[in-house]
Amino acid sequence: MGAPFDPAAFLATCSGRPGVYRMLDEGGKLLYVGKAKNLKKRLSSYFRKTGLAPKTAALVGRIAQIETTITANETEALLLEQTLIKEWRPPYNILLRDDKSYPYVFLSDGEFPRLGIHRGAKKARGRYFGPYPSAGAIRESLALLQKAFLVRQCEDSYFRNRTRPCLQYQIKRCKGPCVGLVSPEEYAADVRHSVMFLEGRSNALAEELSTLMQEAAVRLDFERAAVLRDQIAVLRRVQDQQSMEGGSGDVDVIAAVTNPGGACVHLISVRGGRVLGSKNFFPQVGIEEGVGEVMAAFIAQYYLGNPERDLPRELIVNVVHEDFAALIKALQELRDVELTISHRVRGTRARWQKLAITNAEQALAARLANRQHLAVRFEALAEALNLDEVPQRLECFDISHSSGEATVASCVVFGPEGPLKSDYRRYNIEGVTAGDDYAAMRQALTRRFSKVREGEGKLPDILLVDGGKGQLAMAREVMQELAVPELILLGVAKGVTRKPGLETLFLNDAAHEFTLPGTSPALHLIQQIRDEAHRFAITGHRARRGKARRTSTLEGVPGVGPKRRRELLNHFGGLQELSRASLEEIAKAPGISKKLAESIYAALHSE
Fold first, then answer.
1. Torsion over CA of 138, 141, 144 and 145, rounded to 10 degrees?
2. Tell me, what DSSP letter sits at residue 310?
3. Could you give the CA distance from residue 129 to residue 277 in angstroms, rounded to a whole number?
């Protein structure tokens, strides 16, 4: 064992110039990398007798050696610090675990171009749109484009060898250019509309489609008008989901929040005034736990650590830090672009900032809750059911209706990390006797697990059915009919008093009936999933019931006559899409004042 580290002797010879310092343990392992305007002053702060944070004290206790590198200025120190952090990933640094490149939407060249996801070097000939913050965001955009404009997304090798149209043509997601079912001129128009959407010109695109729809109606080409109406509906739905429409420019909105259990950074990407999507990051928090330090570390590693990553001209943040000036200078030198970091913003930018903060807070709270409780609950469920392995995917079905009206079945999915909301599904139940929950459950399960039999979708480890012996028997019968591989069925029936904590459980069949203590983590997990399925079903049922009952709602709104009703419906593509619009979206329609928009919105959402 070597001699203990002598901070006094080290500081006596330490330089006061800018530079980078590296702290190592007794075995020579790198513990922490930092930068400083004044190395001596910064390093002295680690060895004061009082006032050290617990993690800082733990780091200092492991130091056996400190190495320094003097740089010409603070900017060079920042660049060197990020290079060392990325290469060595020291355990006490704030680490951003994100080494992936961002995906782009790629539009190939040729007579019948394809749309697809692209990562990595841009070597293929064509146009690239993005980058998008996640593959999920890009898949959502491609799905919308496929529904609206039917531009092909199949690989070129697949496209060249087709002799008949594929399934995408059958389900009206492609026009069959592979076998000549669409002219190059018509296909080029669909490609042009897709490009307008990807460039963020959704308003201009919607206006153009609205004009074409009216022209088709005048020609009595109602089939073409209906297609254009559906395209407008898709666009308006996107704009309604993006409540932040109305901004401009290329901006990244970044919010950082911290909690004793960790930190979260939420990033929203805005390009051409259109929100492309967002993503959560959970950096490993080291010795510096302040929100400002987390933000500065994120910006440095995210943009300096990956020079190929897209950098907009403005970053909107929720906290300021003294390192921002050096960060801006370093990024400008590295990228040769002007950059602004804004903190106090107004209007649309303030709404973006608020949304990013809200998302970061909720994501961190959910992550901490999941980390602390869900893993324990999943393990307890495996123990309660005598399973050899902890289940990784749970699905739960529930039925909701009002005296048989507008029956909706829900399917929610949970994994060890929490709800998998992208896998949630609702099923509108048709063709069954009103109030027949067994038939409704049969239809929902058949529709869900028919896809598994056909090789689509994932099979759950445990299928929960909200109901007693009858619903469980129905589920078992459906699984047998579909020849679905054996999976665990768990029926959840309310007890005699129907109070939470007194549920009766049935494992696979009615013969295996049991209960769990009210304090059991396994029962808490079952209740959580069942309640989520119930909530999801009720939400879908109410929405469906409301649509069924909403007829000619606009006729009773003062100030909305036949002409204005027609203009509103043309603008949004129909009453259904108008009912989905926010108050702000309605107010943006031609000829609609804020007061009139409030009346329309109230009429559309009255019970």
1. -100
2. -
3. 13
Strand partners, 410: 398, 426
Percent of the chain topping pLDDT 70 = 87
Read off the tokens for 161.
């060898």
CA–CA separation, 216 vs 214, rounded Å?
Answer: 5
- Backbone phi and psi for residue 558, each to the nearest 5 degrees, phi listed first: -60, 135
pLDDT at 246: 47
Does the pLDDT at position 243 exceed 60?
Answer: no
Greatest CA span in the chain, whole angstroms? 93
**Please, where are the H alpha helices in 91-221?**
135-149, 156-160, 167-170, 184-198, 202-218
16-69 confidence digits (pLDDT tens)? 888 899 999 988 899 999 998 899 999 999 998 887 877 788 889 899 989 888
DSSP string, 281-308: E--B--S--SHHHHHHHHHIIIIIS-TT
∠580-583-585 over CA atoms, to 5°?
75
Question: Could you tell me whether strands 462-466 and 488-493 are parallel, antiparallel, or unpaired per DSSP bridges?
Answer: parallel
State the Cα torsion 108-112-117-123 to the nearest 10°.
Answer: -20
Q: Quote the pLDDT of residue 287.
A: 47
Residue 206 banded pLDDT, cuts 50, 70, 90: confident
Q: Can you tell me which residue has the tokens 């990562």?
A: 119
Q: Locate 78 and state its tokens.
A: 């920042």
Alpha-carbon span 400 to 531, nearest angstrom: 12
Give the contacts of 221 (CB within 8 A, at least 6 positions apart): none
Q: How far apart are CA 355 and CA 255, in angstroms?
A: 9
The Cα–Cα gap between 538 and 401 comes to 8
- CA dist., res. 513 & res. 507, Å (int): 7
Start-to-end CA distance of the chain, whole Å, equals 77
Give the Å distances, CA to CA, from 155 to 98, 139, 339.
Answer: 28, 15, 38
Q: Residue 418: phi, psi to the nearest 5?
A: 120, -165
Helix (H) or strand (E) run with residue 444 in it: helix 437-453
